[in-house]
Specification:
Blueprint (H helix, E strand, L loop, with lengths): L1 E10 L2 E12 L4 E5 L4 H4 L1 H11 L8 E7 L11 H11 L11 E3 L2 E2 L5 E2 L4 H10 L3 E3 L5 H4 L7 E2 L4 H9 L12 E2 L14 H13 L3 E4 L6 H7 L9 H13 L8 E2 L4 E2 L7 H5 L9 H4 L4 E4 L7 H5 L2 H6 L1 E5 L4 E5 L3 E6 L18 H8 L4 H5 L3 E4 L5 H5 L7 H17 L10 H7 L4 H14 L3 H18 L6 H9 L8
Parallel strand pairs: 3-4, 5-8, 8-9, 10-12, 11-17, 11-18, 13-14, 14-17
Antiparallel strand pairs: 1-2, 2-4, 6-7, 15-16
Length: 498
């Protein structure tokens, strides 16, 4: 007899259906798993055997073969434990094989028979919804699975409880959908004294979803400004929140099945590797740029990152996705992020500061800034210098305008972008860009002169038009004019090209 139980394999945010086929046949006692299992899947033999032993069940002294079909699809992860155990129990006649045909099962087994959590349950639940099946998952992740509407969910705490439900001797309660998590507290812009130019650039970046690079001496408030950004960004829409949660689910970061409406804010250390930033590893997992999808990726001390790591961001910043290619798999993760970066002007951090004399002279700044490649800087829409904060600045009273007031203007600008068919002005391109960001005659004349004098690339030209469109939106003006082009040009200093 061959028993079948359905489960899934994860390829990025895609779930591929996998059949767990179990055959118990006459022959020398043996328990083998085939179908390109990785180490974690191969070790399921011991976990499944121990879990059944904890229930008082022993494996029959026969040849047991588990086949994971399709056999040419690599299988990795511990979530195959539960479907393997169920297929084996069905082949042994302990439970009804036909009854299991309506379900997709995922979950890891503890040695005492408990069903413990594994990454990707939300992805599996959404897949179950598309194939009109139910989902069997760990109890701790039942609230996560219920975010896939209309999917029947069984969330047992252990294998015994699941068997009892299938046999009708007990009933598992339907799990309750997880809560919408509150946004974490963030600093308010009222805490930033002075830095009016930098705050204006931050508002423009938030309103248009533009990338921003801040350069200034240590202690000038660059990190504080960046940490204020989540407080002025609009909440995720329900669709966007589900999209972000799918990334968090496959990375194993969902907390108690909660979905957050706050935009992600990721700030990796400058020692992060390429795989940590863009994704990869032996078991391909999303990197920081994907975990920040539809949110903010903050890179502090930008030139301290390895140059190859930074240049790996070029493609995600342009296309909004990361393609991780391996010999046996090609995985795509979403990565539509807003890049906010901060850096010192030089290694010592005080180049250009009045009264400061560097022993290495201008070379200190030029060599330090040259660590950033031109193509990467070309993808950053706004460059702004953040001046040092003086004692007089610190003695000033807090600014009258707080994050809430700025957030209202940002929300208005984002709503205008939505009416144009995009999430933000940073996504305007092609016909939409020509229709909604075309400047008036005076603005076009200034733009053409600037493009010729500054030798703007086609990418820089397009990105500057998008920033000008955002400046006009914040001013409540329908047509991009000369003043909006001029302000957008003031943010194209091209740090690092001096």
């Amino acid at each position: 007899m061959v028993a079948l139980v359905r489960t899934v394999a994860y390829l990025g945010l895609e779930a591929r259906q996998v059949e767990v086929q179990c055959q118990v046949a006459s022959g020398l006692p043996r328990f083998s798993i085939v179908g390109l299992p990785d180490k974690a899947v191969s070790e399921s033999r011991e976990r499944v055997q121990a879990a059944l032993s904890a229930m008082g069940l022993a494996l029959p002294p026969k040849r047991i073969t588990i086949n994971l079909s399709p056999a040419d699809l690599p299988k990795d992860g511990s979530h195959y434990d539960l479907p393997i155990a169920l297929a084996l129990l069905a082949a042994m006649g302990v439970t009804d094989a036909e009854q299991l045909g309506d379900w997709i099962a995922v979950g890891e087994l503890a040695l005492d028979g408990r069903v413990v959590g594994s990454p990707g349950v939300l992805i599996a639940a959404l897949h179950a919804s598309t194939v009109e099946a139910g989902l069997i998952c760990p109890a701790d992740q039942g609230s996560e699975a219920k975010w896939a509407s209309g999917v029947p969910v069984l969330a047992p705490r252990d294998l015994s409880a699941l068997l009892g439900h299938l046999k009708g001797s007990q009933v598992l309660a339907e799990p309750v959908r997880g809560d919408v998590a509150d946004a974490p507290p963030v600093p308010d812009l009222k805490q930033v004294k002075g830095q009016e130019t930098a705050k204006r650039a931050l508002e423009i970046a938030a309103a248009g979803g533009h990338n921003l690079l801040m350069m200034g001496p240590p202690g000038s408030g660059k990190s504080l400004l960046a940490s204020c950004l989540p407080g002025i960004l609009p909440e995720l829409t329900p669709t966007e929140a589900l999209e972000v949660s799918m990334v968090q689910s496959v990375a194993g970061l969902m907390d108690a099945g909660q979905i957050s409406r706050a935009r992600p804010f990721r700030a990796p250390h400058h020692s992060a590797s390429m795989a940590a930033l863009t994704g990869g590893g032996l078991k391909v997992r999303p990197g920081e740029v994907s975990l920040a999808h539809l949110g903010v990726l903050f890179l502090d001390e930008l030139p301290e990152f390895q140059r190859a790591v930074l240049d790996s961001l070029r493609q995600p910043l342009e296309t909004g996705q990361v393609d991780v290619a391996r010999a046996n798999a090609h995985v795509t993760f979403p990565a539509r992020v807003q890049l906010i970066a901060a850096m010192n002007p030089c290694r010592c951090g005080h180049a250009g500061e009045p009264g400061h004399v560097c022993a290495r002279g201008p070379r200190c700044a030029s060599e330090y800034q040259a660590r950033l490649s031109g193509p990467l800087l070309d993808r950053i829409d706004c460059h702004v210098e953040v001046a040092a904060v003086s004692a007089m600045d610190l003695s000033l009273p807090p600014p009258a305008e707080d994050s809430a007031a700025v957030a209202r203007r940002v929300a208005t600008a984002r709503n205008l972008a939505t009416s144009r068919g995009v999430r933000s002005n940073a996504e305007l391109e092609g016909e939409r860009l020509e229709t909604h960001a075309a400047p008036n005659d005076e603005g076009r004349a200034l733009l053409m002169r600037a493009a010729e004098k500054l030798r703007l690339s086609a990418r820089s030209y397009t990105r500057m038009l998008r920033v000008a469109r955002t400046v006009a939106d914040l001013a409540g003006v329908e047509r991009v004019g000369r003043e909006h082009i001029a302000e957008a040009l003031s943010y194209r200093q091209m740090i690092g090209r001096a």
